[in-house]
Amino acid sequence: MTMAGDYRQPPPADLAPDAERREAGIPHEQQGWRLDKALVALAPEFSRSHLQTLIAQGLVELGGVPARTASKRVQAGQRLAVVLAPPAEASAFLPQPLPIETVYEDEHLRIINKPAGLVVHPAPGNWSGTLLNGLLALDPPVAALPRAGIVHRLDKDTSGLMVVARTLVAQTALVRAMAAREIHRQYLALAHGDVGAAPFSVTVPVGRDPVSRVRMAAVASGKPARTDVTPVARQEGVSAVVCVLHTGRTHQIRVHLSHLGHPLVADAVYGGRAALGLTRQALHATELALAHPVTGVPLRFHAPLPADLAQAWVTITGETR
Fold it and tell me: Catalytic: which of 36, 139, 155, 267?
């Protein structure tokens, strides 16, 4: 287990170790130019939008005074200085020690228990502090693999088990097994309302929400998706359920249960309300079973509920998981 750093607090841009301070006088031909235009001339290797970000961060000085307005007009002879911190996305594939709990590892794969709050892969708004950054620090050779060996994802606020490849042979086999639906993934969830007592399957296609691009939705034009749901208990207007994925669409369980009128507890994106002390969606990947990608030996792993979900689960079911 590696427990270091804090994925919620990436280092500020102005403290980046590879930041460069650059300065020069404003030449006569730039008299009256906008500040951001003058910066492009001083640092042409950076985009104008990134340089505007540096201005807003207070990393630009004009005449020895911080300048925070991109449209400010410069005067010939003024001294222009900038701390050229790299763009945020430059940190996307940098090693960063993070709290990653390893459940199992061998030379070909690693099984991890992802905490809630950890983003799996770099993307706008989360260029650092991701699982990928942590894997690069924990296991440097995976830098040679696509996506550092990541073959599937969990949402930021979903906790639980993930399999990660450590060799290209294993990654290729795992990707194929995932596509062939040969990897068993079981989740525990708490949903609003009464889902009934009998097991059922949801087979509604899932695709991008036509109204909100940050959400997915049950739409006819989406990709095929199937979630098997087994009710466990019901109390206080909340149902405890076990979900098994047969496909791995983005937000699949969250979308399917919300589509039926039973959004997950505390899942604000899909209509869930805070309850039972939970502040993140009540979803945990509790079981993972697969054939070893190289040896073929059957593997099965279980991750108990983390503290926040465990307490809520006991309240509804009276049992621990």
Answer: 155
Q: For the whole model, what pTM was predicted?
A: 0.75
User: Amino acid letter at 7?
Assistant: Y
Q: For tokens 């639980």, name the residue.
A: 160
Task: Give the tens place of pLDDT for each residue, 74-95.
Answer: 999 999 999 987 776 665 788 9
Spatial neighbors of 126 by CB under 8 A, at least 6 apart, are 119, 156
Q: Cα–Cα distance between 118 and 276 in angstroms, integer? A: 22
Q: Per residue in 117-160, pLDDT tens?
A: 999 988 777 778 999 999 999 999 999 888 899 999 999 999 99
Answer yes or no: 106 catalytic: no
